[in-house]
Amino acid sequence: MEQQGQQPSVLGERKKIKAMVAIDESDESLYALKWALENLIGISGGVADPTQEQGNLTLVHVQQPFQHYIFPSGPAVYATSSVVESIKKAQEEHSAVVLSQALQVCKGNTVKVETMAVEGDPKEVICQTAERMHVDLVVLGSRGLGKIKRAFLGSVSDYCAHHCKCPVLIVRPPKEASK
């Protein structure tokens, strides 16, 4: 039994959160990252000790896999190896730019930040990466697709909310920021 003067250890300690933020070239994903830094990790407000790390944040950018062939109105056409290498290099450079923009947002915060660029279907890869890394939370930006567009195009955030094995936070930007 606890003594009256003692607080339970759960209330006395602040758990360092291990979060994963999915980043793409959209303003919505950068807004979700800023929101996570300010509200989840608790670093921007100044209440946390600025000399101590406040948590772990993994920034993940998912590249669509390159299809090596196309189907015009005839037989399949395959890309040459030099074309494939050129496209893969361009994809890597694009991922580096996207992740460096996200790292700029994280500058000045006392959070350990890692970056990852992975290839595959974004909705599936985000869920698989979250499970493999044992994160506490996945943070995604919302583009605010309507019901019809979401039904036809699919929604990465909707898929992750239903298939990730950890909590998923979908951050919707304020109306004036999304215009």
Detailed description of the structure:
This protein is of the alpha/beta class and 179 residues long. It is 40% helix and 20% strand. It is built from six helices and seven strands. α4 packs parallel to α6. The longest helix is centred in the middle third of the chain and has 26 residues. About 8% of the residues have low confidence.
List the helices and strands and how they pair.
Elements: H1 9-12, E1 17-22, H2 27-40, E2 55-63, E3 69-70, E4 77-78, H3 81-106, E5 112-119, H4 122-133, E6 137-141, H5 147-153, H6 156-163, E7 168-171
Parallel strand pairs: 1-2, 1-6, 2-5, 6-7
Antiparallel strand pairs: 3-4
Helix pairs in contact: 2-3, 4-6
The secondary-structure class comes to alpha/beta
So what's the overall shape? Answer: globular
Q: Can you list the strand order of the major beta sheet?
A: 5-2-1-6-7
Distance between the termini: 56 Å
Largest sheet: 5 strands, parallel
Instruction: Calculate the mean pLDDT score and round it.
Output: 79
Beta-strand content bin: 15-25%
Helix content: 25-40%
Count all strands and give the number. 7
Number of helices: 6
Order of helices and strands: HEHEEEHEHEHHE
The poorly predicted ranges are 5-12, 43-48
Q: Rg, please? A: 20 Å
Keyword list:
globular, two-stranded antiparallel sheet, 6 helices, five-stranded parallel beta sheet, 179 residues, alpha/beta
